[in-house]
Amino acid sequence: MSVSIIEGQKADRIAEALEVMAVSLASDSTGLVKNWKSLQNLLRAGMIGKVLSPSDTLNVEKESGLSVTVTGGVTSATVNEDTFLSATGIAQNRAYEFVYDGAVWTLEGIAVELPHYGITYSGTPAEGDAIVIHEQAGTIVFDVLGIDYDVPVNPAMKHSLSILARDVLLYNSIPFCASQALYSVAADIWPDGIPAETTLNITLNHGAYNGSTSHDGTYQFTTPVAIPVGGKIRHTTMGVYQSSYTQEQITGGTFTIYDAAYNVIAQNVACSVGSDGTDIGTTTAADPQYKSGTHVNFTQRNAYGSNINAHSANRKWMNSSAAGAASGEIASWWTASDEFDMPVKSTLPGFLHGLDPSFVACIGRVYKRTALPIANGYGYIDTQEYVWAPSMTEMGYGANNGVYETTTDGNGAVKQTGAYPLYVGAGNADKIKVSQGTTTARYWWLRSPYPSLASHERCVIPSGALNYSNAYNSSGVVPGLSLI
């Protein structure tokens, strides 16, 4: 078979007609995209700009609860939330009526298997009996940030649509990063853990919060309990901000000891000046040139948490579909990023839990660059991100310590040096975020560290201006993601 090449204006007209046809098939009479798969098809064809542009919004449904009613011989029924959403493939406000026809269960006249939908029941059904699943869903509004700004990790994908939640979805709920451990009991140093009644000492070198030497010295303590491998040690005043600094502030503090499951096994352990027992290392506020020994953390992170994006509890929540944990338990979506990480306790399910599955299926990983703070040697780290917080560069605040925190080509080359198109030329007022469903402006986190400290993270304050805050604070969470 031979293929002839159509040249000139005729080829252009055919291409234009095909584009119009594709957009027409994917959108309704008002120009709105019919469904997420249609939007993805337009995106992958390079035609999403025909129906969307920065400042447009996308409304995404998120399931908020399921309830069940039964009739006839069915006396009760339950439904597994995750299984049900997976089976329906969509989140929306509606009722699903499963009817027994005398032989099989049906949904909209089609025979179905109830276990496929996570439904179990008690009783003996008769013809005409029904199990009705009532689904409740809310709406998250996303702003379109830009088209083809972010680079997909999958090399087969050439286009991206980056979006950001319009509102703060969580506030005063979880920290960016909880205060970390000062020392971790590791098997390479303590293969059998630390025995009870062991005296340990730790040295501070430029260890005060401000990096001064006024707290410096060697301090000792005796653990009243055995500490297993994986256990942690924290101090109540090392790295804490003071108006002035003295050794008495350190000896006035105490040590807290945890087992490998983060349970407190000893607290109020006295601290005194001295170098008796085993040296566990030298720590400092933030500058690694003053720190030595393994498995010892920075004092600022002991006091206020870490400003590394990988440690972010927000990032862990945003990227999880886990159901919520029981009250008082470690969050179902939290995992330790390193040996110093301390857990977050929360009943919250992950952000992706209940989010419209047909929408989630369109999310893809993209390359992101994030600056590193002094404790990690400055510079930057390139990562593959799924759901992310935006950076100061992406929001239009410029480079972070000389680092353009945008997207790369996956080989180390920065692809963008400016803000997302939505925020090019935007003022602070355009960056204000309110709690969802309110008019109350909030502090909200970026993924960018404040580089000269080990414990402070960039945030946007209620005026829309750029600022920074202790990582252990619970400011707002605003998820961003890229459809691929």
Please count the helical segments. Answer: 7
Largest sheet: 9 strands, antiparallel
Into which percent range does the helicity of residues fall? 10-25%
Using the alpha-carbon principal axes, give the shape.
globular
Q: What's the number of structural domains?
A: 4
Low-confidence stretches: 1-7
Structural class, judged by helices and strands? alpha+beta
By DSSP, the count of extended strands is 24
Cα radius of gyration in angstroms: 27 Å
How far do the termini sit from each other? 35 Å
What share of residues are in beta strands? 25-35%
If you average the pLDDT, what whole number results? Answer: 94
Describe the structure.
It contains 7 helices and 24 strands. The chain is α+β, with helices and mostly antiparallel strands and 484 residues long. It has 4 domains: 8-59, no CATH class; 61-141, no CATH class; 148-177 and 306-484, no CATH class; 183-304, no CATH class. Strands 1, 3, 4, 5, 7, 8, 17, 20 and 24 form a 9-stranded antiparallel β-sheet that branches. It has a 4-stranded antiparallel β-sheet with strand order 9-12-13-14, with no helix packed on it. Strands 15-11-10-16 form a 4-stranded mixed β-sheet. A hairpin with a 6-residue loop joins strand 21 (444-449) and strand 22 (456-460). The model is unreliable at 1-7 (pLDDT under 50).
Structural descriptors:
484 residues; alpha+beta; 4 domains; nine-stranded antiparallel beta sheet; 24 strands; disordered N terminus
